[in-house]
Structure formats: structure tokens, C-alpha cells
Design brief:
243 residues
């Protein structure tokens, strides 16, 4: 495991050089975050392998974007970002169309092969590479890659706090749950100061300290559902003000 100071130096070198080996070293160092978050959301209607792949891709993108000069630790930055992307993936599943059983079978092998290739090389295999290694046509591989298992947004699920029960819609994030769309950081800071005290606490705990909705709820003495809805309200306010 690389220390925070060593990681920051690597991030700076990667930003300066674009060296893929440095990027892959950083990804490997923080891959445990993708594993933890994928396990956290497994068992809610989406397979762990799918969630791990989504989380890994988000982690790579996060490594490529992260700037240590902004003063945040990478773990603080990446955890809510990956969490939001995983939750958005649930939304995509809810809109999916059921495919033939054979395609699902192929999709399972494609996921397994993709994960193994990623572990070995640090990147996803191409359709052509998957076709060659698995013996399926490229057309079937592409169809399998689009394979999804529908999940209803009305499905009742248990929240992160292990107690509250609510529709999946109240648990998952909006497409713009993170603050990545807001490019002007100074304007963002100004608008955050206009939020009420509770909303500012939610922003600080969720997006700066990387705490889960359940953890924020315990700190503020409210339910996880309250935190989830507060996030939606905050993002809408900031979107109206900045976008």
C-alpha cells in the first residue's frame, strides 16, 4: 500500500507525464475501494461482477482526473464519486430490456473474462480480444456487453443504515449527484455558502469527508432518507444557480 504522500507525488508525476504505468500503479493501489463499494451494493438486484467492473472504470477515470494540489485526499474524493456512478448504474438497469437467455449466459463469461483481463493488464479487453479468447462472434460479444437485468425503481430495499426501508428510487442518486459538472469552483463555494446550515453540513460530510448517507444521518440525527432527499435538493439548487 502506498502512503498518501507517495500517492500524491505519483499523481503529480502522472499529471505532468501522462505515464500509463504510473496511472496503473495508482489504480492498483486504490482498487480495494472499488471492491468495497461493489460489495456494498451487491445483493440489490445487480451482480457483484457488474458492479465491480463499473466501480473499477470509475476508479480509473478518477485517477486520471484527480489533482492533489486542490488539497483533498484521493480516498475522500473518489469514494462519493464511485458511489454515485454505481447508483446511476442501477438507474440504467431499471430502463433495460430483457434479452435472450443465451445472451445472459455469454454475458456472464464476458464479465468473468473482462475482470480477469483487467486484473492482469489494468485495462478492459477489446471486443476483438474477447471474441478471440472466448470463441464467440464479435456481434454476440457486443450484444452480451449490452446485457442488463431489469430492476424496478419501486423495489423496496434496506438503506445503508440497515434499518430504514424505502423504494430504490430514494436510495439511488440522480445523474448529477457529484459536483463534477460544476467547473467554476469559486462560484460553487459562493453558492454553497448560501445554503442553510443543515445543507452545508450535508455537503461537507458527504462530498468533502466522503461519509455515507447513513453516517451523515447519525451525525445529524436524521434518517438516511432525509439525507438522500437533501442531496437531491442541494444539487438542484446548485444546478439552478450555476448551470
Amino acid at each position: 500500500m502506498i502512503s498518501n504522500s507517495e500517492a500524491n507525488e505519483l499523481f503529480k508525476k502522472y499529471r505532468d507525464t501522462g505515464d500509463i504505468d504510473i496511472r496503473n500503479k495508482l489504480v492498483e493501489n486504490y482498487l480495494y475501494i472499488a471492491e468495497i463499494l461493489a460489495k456494498k451494493f451487491s445483493g440489490r438486484g445487480v451482480e457483484y461482477d457488474d458492479l465491480y467492473q463499473v466501480a473499477s472504470e470509475a476508479l480509473i477515470a478518477g485517477v486520471e482526473k484527480f489533482d492533489p494540489d486542490l488539497g483533498n485526499q484521493f480516498t475522500t474524493y473518489i469514494t462519493p464519486t464511485v458511489t454515485g456512478i454505481i447508483k446511476n448504474y442501477f438507474r440504467d438497469y431499471s430502463r433495460a430490456v430483457r434479452l435472450p437467455r443465451r445472451v445472459y449466459s455469454v454475458a456472464a463469461r464476458v464479465r468473468e473474462e473482462t475482470n480477469e483481463y483487467f486484473k492482469a493488464h489494468g485495462v478492459k479487453p477489446t471486443v476483438k480480444q474477447l471474441s478471440k479468447s472466448l470463441g464467440y462472434s464479435e456481434e454476440l460479444i457486443m450484444e452480451a456487453l449490452e446485457c442488463r437485468t431489469p430492476v424496478s425503481l419501486d423495489m423496496r430495499v434496506r438503506g445503508d443504515d440497515g434499518e430504514s426501508d424505502a423504494p430504490l428510487y430514494d436510495i439511488i442518486a440522480d445523474d448529477s449527484k457529484t459536483f463534477e459538472d460544476f467547473e467554476d469552483s469559486e462560484s460553487l463555494k459562493t453558492e454553497i455558502k448560501k445554503l442553510d446550515a443543515t445543507e452545508q453540513q450535508v455537503v461537507a460530510l458527504r462530498f468533502l469527508q466522503g461519509k455515507s448517507q447513513a453516517e451523515v444521518g447519525k451525525i445529524l440525527g436524521v434518517s438516511q432518507m432525509f439525507v438522500s432527499r437533501a442531496e437531491r435538493k442541494i444539487v438542484e439548487k446548485l444546478k439552478d444557480a450555476l448551470l
